[in-house]
Amino acid sequence: MPCSSSSSCKPRPPPLAPTVAALSALLARCASLTAAAALHARLLRSSRLFRTPFLANCLAAAYSRLGAAPSAVALLVHAPGAEANRFSHNILLAALLKCRDLPAACRLFDGMPHRDTVAYNSMISGYVDGGRPDEAFRLVRRMMELGVRPSGFTFSIVSSAVCSAPHGVQVHAAAVRSGSANHNTVVGNTLVDMYRRVGLLKYAVRVLWSMEEQDIVSMNSVMSVYKDGGQSHGVFECFRLIRSHWFMVDEYSVSIVLSTCTDAEDFAKGDQLLVLCIKMGLLSNSVICSAVIGLLSVSDRLADAVWLFEGVAKWDSETCNAMISGFARSGIMEQALGLFAMALRNGILPTEFTFASVLRWSSCFGLMEQGTQIHALIFKCGFEDDIIVATALVDMYFKLGSLKHARRLFSNVCAKDLVLWNTMIIGLSHNGRGKEALQVFWSMLKCGIQPDRITLFAALSACSLLGLVNEGMNIISLFKANYHVVPGLEHYTCVVDLLSCAGMFREAVDLVDDKLQKCNTAVLSNILESCVIQGDIAMAESVAEKMMKLKPLSSLPYIVLAQKYGGRCKWESVARMWRLMEDQGAKKVQGCSWLCIKSEIHVFTSEQVVHLGGEATYAVLDLLFWEMMDNRSAPGCVNKTEGFACTQLLLHCTL
């Protein structure tokens, strides 16, 4: 058919080939591996991929960014051209590190002719992610010795790997010298978090206020610092500052303040924050919802917490953790374990906090069978190496009296933190192993772990168990001089117990008068019990008379003085003691023993003639009795602590 016009018969010009800039822009905007592979194929067909190393680098960077690091490695290994070595090597180095091939990355790094800040940052990050912080610190020193200027990202990486106060101070000093500490918000935030982790809370606050510009991450970090230090007032002030400066609060800001209200039991402020969450529609966020459930559970509003939990559109690990902890905290372990099992059936994988919550509360109720079952599940899920779960397991086995399992778990943890060390020392002390607890304490100090107030209390408890007065005083002096830990009321209370166990009652009373005026009634009661146990009747009478002036609610001083007057036939004084005890409303604290049989816990008091539990209870007691007798008859197998506890239980339950 002839052409209708000459213009329509002209051949169309070929399409313009995309420029290198256009191709690189397309690669930078690739949002899927499929798109990147399609561009890769197009470049190979047009023979333009290896015409310039720039496109090969862009394609490799896209592969690495989209999670296909092995493809990036394969591409760059076969890419010719040496003129773009620096960029190609940096991209290849980052891809190798994403593949977790640290040895190959080290070989590539050592062979690079030009190593810039990007290359050093990649290797430092690789060492940190690979659990080799010492190598990362050595590489930073080498980098600075060779004159390569560290960037803000360098200090951010190194700060995240710091685990001791001296290293933290050195990193901070280097950041100040480079000018990144005050001018770079990201570096300042990482320094604040670093000081929070190593326990230097004052330094963290100073870093925050020295920053030229803060953001919401900065304020969240310093609120976490105040929260860790137990300074609820500082948390509330920071939150008011966030609101007054019109920062956009996020879920972490609100959850930190809610957790602070829970820890401080400041339910009035917690209710105000709850109203704010409702107004802003924040309860749909799982982090905030779980914090609110925790607040309601602690404030004895478990029904409201259950109502909120039942209204959650979709369960997740955070809300389930909070509700499980709320049930267990209220003593409803059956519902807690039931919810734990239901969450597993619904496909909600447990986290380390789930296991820690269940283990913590199940051990408090002596549920040995459930605890070992949860341990088996932890092993199957691969959480046994997690430091939080390992600490919870050690604590559980100590509370259940299984010292062998606790020791084994503790020794299997490679990187032990302060919480795990403290748990080990306290657990050994509570199980009557004071000498071993002190050995663990000194081993912790040799490992360079910075102790805290809990460590001091644990060490003093071990000294009190053994009656080591001089060693306890030396430990207090050591903490004051080397670790800047000033003893508080709980530590002086432990010292009073230490002096009382050693028979130094006069020194104990003087310490109470000097340091413990606010809680001297409870502490004097402990001294009085020690006096009675050790048979120092004269001192017991003196302490009881001192307690009588404080009008105590405990019946112990009244009973001690009544027995003393009865021995002297002063019957009017005996009657006066009983009347004073009745008028004061003092009640005798009734001791009890408990025994767990499968899922049931039986409590026994001395006033019961027939105990609940029937034949099963007494069958277990018979087994305990014969096991105790076998241990006593076997040479070298006597466990005095367990034998005494078992004897006390049997005598108590057969009254």
TrEMBL record:
Q: Note the segments forming the PPR repeats.
A: 116-150, 316-350, 417-451
Can you cite a GO biological process for this protein? RNA modification
Under Gene Ontology molecular function, one entry of this record is:
RNA binding
What UniProt keywords apply to this chain's record, in alphabetical order? Repeat, Transit peptide
Please give one Pfam family short name: E_motif
**NCBIfam families to which the protein is assigned, alphabetical:** PPR (TIGR00756)
Q: What is this protein called?
A: Pentacotripeptide-repeat region of PRORP domain-containing protein
